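Please fill in the sequence for the structure shown.

STRUCTURE ENCODING:
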């Protein structure tokens, strides 16, 4: 019988998105072989990793992504004017009531943070305007937070295993939180991933989403509280930075711990509205601000998936997946860690889907985490020490890479920038072709969330199965009765399966996605 390692390697070499479901569920069972379905005829060369490394498949470049550390480093675009009656058609938050579970007493911001010297402090008149909202029933600027829609949706769940002794899922409560408020031509998407486990991490994520959402709904979509209005992308980025200060202040107020935070605002661009009087715009801009390793993407049927937030991490260097790179909350006393706080913008079109993910989703599309490829011996090296992307036009480079850079498991070795591009290609493959590999392309925010989450759940299935094995928690007496092991013995048995765990794909984590289909809503649409 083949060893688990050989079975996993064989599985990974043949795996494509079309056979993921059947193949993953065979790992670890007593079957002697893994027989995935053949890939569709339009998949020349089999696995997309092989095609990419051989140069037969390249990442399509979409609209340019610009990034910087402050608004002055980014170009200024004029924004289109939204109708005053453009009301929210979808508002949704989660998990477990999400951002609505914090700030219940409607305490309002009075905390300033002089150490965050490049984030604008809330002005006094802003604080007075916020206080004026305290007498109505709105929460973070929205009356009803449980209005999901096909075009504006989010999901948060856990990928961790259940403990057979008490049937409780490890990692509870879910430490992620999302919120989305969508208007016909505009949206605010927010996602936070609480650092580590526990109530305090969950509280930090919910507080961050609440604080930033409340500020942005007021600053961007409440004209009575904003006399000058938001007319340029620079105004949006200033509001985004202020919203991060509001998020951090809310964490301190609610006594939460640390969290990542990614916020994206989608707005129409000026002069992009048709001249025939149609109320729908041609072009939009997605403006993001993020700290930590929760990331933002755009899916386009024309150009595939591109990452908006890539300026917050170096795609030419291998990153440590245990390090979020930055966080809001009391990292140092009462101060956040903003080393990788980054602003970014890119042009998007009607029908594109903007989405944010926690690392529980994005990391599971990584080819190394998914066991489609392995790291170089020196995983901290990059392909090019000058920080320049190696050329992709010469297919011989990829052939040499495929032929020479393999180990005895016959898995390809990938550099950091290749891991990044392969992650995007894996997402693109799923969203363009579906689970079956035959399509059709994803066309709604809800479907995108379901597809990405389903992939993460399935690719981590073998890990959960191993950790939920009753033999790790019980011993069997001669009479056949199961007796629970001591905590010490349980830990000892779990340590012995670490090598087995390292052979199977996936990363167990909390997993969250929130998505918005740009400008697709019509007033006469229904759910």
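FILLED IN BY: designer on duty
SEQUENCE:
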């Amino acid at each position: 019988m083949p060893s688990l390692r050989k079975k996993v390697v064989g599985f990974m070499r043949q795996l494509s998105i079309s056979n993921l479901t059947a193949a993953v569920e065979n790992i670890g069972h007593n079957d002697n072989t893994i027989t995935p379905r053949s890939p569709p005829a339009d998949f020349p060369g089999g696995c997309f990793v092989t095609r990419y490394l051989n140069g037969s498949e390249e990442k399509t470049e979409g609209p340019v992504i610009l990034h910087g550390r402050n608004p002055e480093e980014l170009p200024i675009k004029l924004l289109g004017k939204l109708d005053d009656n453009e009301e929210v058609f979808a508002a949704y938050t989660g998990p477990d009531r999400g951002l609505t579970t914090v700030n219940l007493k409607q305490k309002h911001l009075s905390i300033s943070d002089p150490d965050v010297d490049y984030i604008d402090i809330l002005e006094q008149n802003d604080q007075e305007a916020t206080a004026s909202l305290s007498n109505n029933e709105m929460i973070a600027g929205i009356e009803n937070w449980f209005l999901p829609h096909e075009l504006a949706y989010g999901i948060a769940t856990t990928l961790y295993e259940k403990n057979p002794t008490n049937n409780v899922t490890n990692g509870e409560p879910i430490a992620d939180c999302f919120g989305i408020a969508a208007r016909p031509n505009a949206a605010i998407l927010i996602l936070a991933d609480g650092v580590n486990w526990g109530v305090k991490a969950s509280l930090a994520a919910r507080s961050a989403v609440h604080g930033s959402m409340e500020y942005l709904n007021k600053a961007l979509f409440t004209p009575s509280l904003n006399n000058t209005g938001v007319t340029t992308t620079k105004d949006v980025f200033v509001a985004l930075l202020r919203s991060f200060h509001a998020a951090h202040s809310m964490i301190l107020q609610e006594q939460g711990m640390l969290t990542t935070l990614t916020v994206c605002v989608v707005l129409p661009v000026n002069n992009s509205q048709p001249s025939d009087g149609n109320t729908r715009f041609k072009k939009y801009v997605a403006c993001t601000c993020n700290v930590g390793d929760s990331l933002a993407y755009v899916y386009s049927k024309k150009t595939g998936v591109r990452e908006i937030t890539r300026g917050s991490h170096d795609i030419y260097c291998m990153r440590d997946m245990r390090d979020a790179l930055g966080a809001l909350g009391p990292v140092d006393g009462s101060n956040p860690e903003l080393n990788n706080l980054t602003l970014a913008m890119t042009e998007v079109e009607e029908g594109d889907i903007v989405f944010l993910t926690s690392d529980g989703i994005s990391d599971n599309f990584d080819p190394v985490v998914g066991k489609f490829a392995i790291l170089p011996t020196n995983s901290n090296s990059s392909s090019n020490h000058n920080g320049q992307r190696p050329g992709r036009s010469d297919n011989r480079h990829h052939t040499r890479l495929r032929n020479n850079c393999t180990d005895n498991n016959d898995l390809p070795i990938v550099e950091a920038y290749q891991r990044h591009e392969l992650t995007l290609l894996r997402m693109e493959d799923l969203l363009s072709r579906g689970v079956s590999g035959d399509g059709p392309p994803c066309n709604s925010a809800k479907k995108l969330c379901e597809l990405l989450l389903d992939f993460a759940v399935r690719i981590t299935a073998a890990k959960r199965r191993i950790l939920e094995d009753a033999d790790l928690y019980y011993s069997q007496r001669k009479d056949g009765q199961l007796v629970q092991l001591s905590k010490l013995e349980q830990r000892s048995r779990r340590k012995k399966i670490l090598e087995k765990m390292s052979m199977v794909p996936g990363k167990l984590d909390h997993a969250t996605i929130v998505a918005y289909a740009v400008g697709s809503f019509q007033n006469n649409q229904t759910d």
